[in-house]
Amino acid sequence: MSRIGKQPIQMDAKASFSVDAKNEVTVKGPKGELTLQVHPDIKVAVEDGSIVVSRPTDQKTHRSLHGLYRSLIANMVTGVTDGYKKELEIIGVGFRASVANGVLELGLGYSHPIFFLPPDGISVDVDTKRGKNPIIIIEGIDNQMVGQVAAKIRGLRPPEPYKGKGVRYVGEYVRRKAGKSAAR
């Protein structure tokens, strides 16, 4: 039995849960609503106020889907009740970030500014008061979408190993390299 898949998902009192005949799971909460189409072989039910995910056999595909859908549904419950948040830090001389009308404007050392429009359901904010470097805060209810947006913004200028300049996650360690040494 899958160690992750067999654990029941505890429902928060603020969230509601439903499964329709087509095996589509809907979770509603104070922050929004998320839906997920579950594989037809995987069964999702409510037992004793918690969500239980089960599989029909011990085939390899069923075992892999069992833990996957349990984790996805647990992330949905956490998202609609608490939400998800990622923070990115911009390090570099002259690097800047600002938000105007929901559009993130980045100055990352290129000859032009970069404008990033976040997808629906994702909010982006910039905190310049926390330290000397601006911090981009990405929030939303969909864990996958928050992570994808953070990865896209980080990919615009990943941290480089010589000076450490670029966009990185808050708390991310960038391994530094020694530069060229003068050969005389």
- Write down the overall geometry: elongated
**Weakly predicted, low-confidence segments:** none
**Helical segment tally?**
2
The CATH superfamily of the largest domain bears the name Ribosomal protein L6
What are the defining features of this structure?
184 residues; alpha+beta; Outer Surface Protein A, domain 3; 2 domains; four-stranded antiparallel beta sheet; three-stranded antiparallel beta sheet; 2 helices; 35% strand; elongated
Protein model, in words:
The chain is of the alpha+beta class and 184 residues long. The chain folds into two domains: 9-81, Outer Surface Protein A, domain 3 (Alpha-Beta Complex), CATH 3.90.930; 84-169, Ribosomal protein L6 (Outer Surface Protein A, domain 3, Alpha-Beta Complex). It contains two helices and 13 strands. The protein has a four-stranded antiparallel beta sheet, covered by helices on one side. The protein has a three-stranded antiparallel beta sheet with strand order 1-6-5. Strands 2-3-4 form a three-stranded antiparallel beta sheet, covered by helices on one side. The model has no long low-confidence stretch (mean pLDDT 92).
